[in-house]
Amino acid sequence: MGDMRIDRDVGLVTDRDLYERHGLEVTRFAASIVGPVDAADVVQDAIANLIASQGLIGAANPRALMYRSVLARAKTMQRSGFRRRRREQRFAESIVTSDPEVIPEVARAVARLSPQQRACIFLTYWEDMTPAQIGGQLLIAEGTVKHHLARARNNLRGVLDD
Predict the structure, then answer these.
(1) Residue-range domain boundaries for the chain
(2) 11-14 and 4-7: which strand pairing?
(3) Mind listing the pLDDT tens digit for each residue in 46-59?
(4) What is the domain class of 4-82 according to CATH?
(5) I need a labelling partner for 53 at 20 to 30 A (CA). Which of 3, 10, 64, 148 fits?
């Protein structure tokens, strides 16, 4: 972070100066795209890549370059998350639909649940485990298991009521 840059507004600055000057605003920008939980990681990855590639050296507008880099990293993160969720859904559908007693519509509805909800439903109905057993298996509180089960049942209610 010791390389010097010329910022047309203030003169000579370092990568650290640029981050200190624009880090909070690009983090807010990232949060508007990926949410507050992932924003800091997106910014850190984007800025680290810029510094490693020496992309800020000679940049006419380092602030704009930081914004573009954060946007690109956010898009990559979202695409990766979308692909991961699709893989999880396809895998869940293949596992659940391999049981001949499962109705395909129910299997698709289960596959659309969050991974936590899907795990609790699977362990409850396919493995006949109690919430206390599931909590022990997943290392989460029994109340958390019950919460996931209630949300999952609520999400499945429309499909199961038909």
Answers:
(1) 4-82, 99-161
(2) antiparallel
(3) 888 888 887 767 77
(4) mainly alpha
(5) 10
